[in-house]
Write a structure and sequence with these properties.
Blueprint (H helix, E strand, L loop, with lengths): L22 E5 L2 E6 L8 E5 L8 H14 L2 E5 L10 H9 L6 H21 L2 H18 L5 E6 L1 H11 L30 E5 L17 E8 L5 H12 L8 E10 L11 H23 L3
Parallel strand pairs: 3-4, 3-5, 5-6, 6-7, 7-8
Antiparallel strand pairs: 1-2, 2-4
Helix pairs in contact: 1-7, 2-3
């Protein structure tokens, strides 16, 4: 199944056990999950989640872990405004791709998956979601002068994280009006950059190499080699861009996770040793990056 750039791994995975320790509040007209370190926060990280949104247990546990390990305040807004994909989709897709499942059950699962997924895809298309994301960051930046802000994007959120690292902040600006993938037309003088550093795991709907050619903020990518969205050949292209030394681009990195699939960093299966190890390593990659560029410690 693929719709609008999505694949089955976008809505597959395992829900993690655990009790989130943060709180919820309203900020800039959005519901937000807030996780804070035990000491005074040294910066702020905004999580832009996968399709399952701010209420998924995995995402809340990730926010708690980042706050604890980075000493940053973590904000996870409901950028979907109540239209996140339902977690029952994971069960539907398990049924669809289970060889032991009957044809009738697969047919039912197809309709059930469409029922739960299509509203998310419709209500969170780019023209609708872009103002929600950019305006939240713009207001956060305006209200907190001098505070460093990071963006962490998983799956769906990876596109916006990458765009903000590149400086594509203007709601009305098409960064590629000429459709020329080699020479993006964007002036960093248009407005202040909205973030100071970004991290993304298995980002969705990027155009490579176009979207990583003009990065203006440090970006770290956790890439799965078996990912429909950011495939191994595309990882090669990103590496070539990042390996170029004759540019003024800030530090950037892409880390390969062999045999990993899309969604591995947030919906890994605890019963699978390799998946759990790679999921934990991807989390530590985010921690190191944010500590380095937001907090100032490795």
């Amino acid at each position: 199944m693929s719709a609008g750039g999505y694949c089955k791994d976008c809505v597959s995975g395992t829900i993690h056990d655990g009790t989130p320790t943060g709180r919820t509040e309203k900020l800039y007209d959005l519901d937000v999950y807030v996780a804070e370190p035990s000491s005074q926060p040294k910066a702020t990280i905004v999580m832009i989640t996968d399709a399952f949104g701010w209420q998924l247990n995995n995402n809340r546990i990730m926010a708690d872990n980042l706050a604890k390990k980075t000493e940053c305040k973590v904000l996870m807004p409901d950028f979907f405004c109540g239209t996140a994909a339902d977690a029952v989709l994971m069960g539907h897709f398990h049924t669809l791709f289970d060889a032991e499942t009957s044809y009738f059950s697969k047919t039912v699962a197809v309709f059930a998956a469409a029922y739960h997924f299509l509203p998310f895809a419709i209500y969170n298309r780019e023209g609708v979601s872009k103002p929600r994301v950019y305006n939240f960051f713009r207001r956060l930046r305006h209200d907190n002068p001098g505070m460093k802000i990071g963006a962490g994007g998983w799956c769906w959120g990876g596109k916006w994280t990458t765009y903000m690292c590149a400086g594509f902040n203007n709601l009305n600006l098409d960064p590629y009006p000429s459709n020329n993938i080699d020479q993006p037309e964007f002036s960093k003088d248009k407005e202040e950059l909205l973030i100071d550093a970004g991290y993304t795991a298995h980002p969705s709907m990027l155009q490579i190499p176009r979207d990583v050619l003009t990065l203006q903020r440090p970006l770290s990518i956790a890439a799965a080699t078996e990912d429909f969205q950011l495939s191994a050949p595309k990882i090669d292209e990103v590496e070539k861009v990042f390996d170029q030394t004759n540019t003024d681009r800030p530090p950037c990195e892409i880390v390969r996770y062999e045999q990993a699939k899309h969604g591995f960093a947030i919906r890994w299966n605890p019963a699978n040793e390799r998946e759990q190890k790679q999921g934990e390593e991807a989390e530590e990659q985010a921690v190191r990056w944010f500590r380095r560029f937001l907090v100032g410690t490795a």
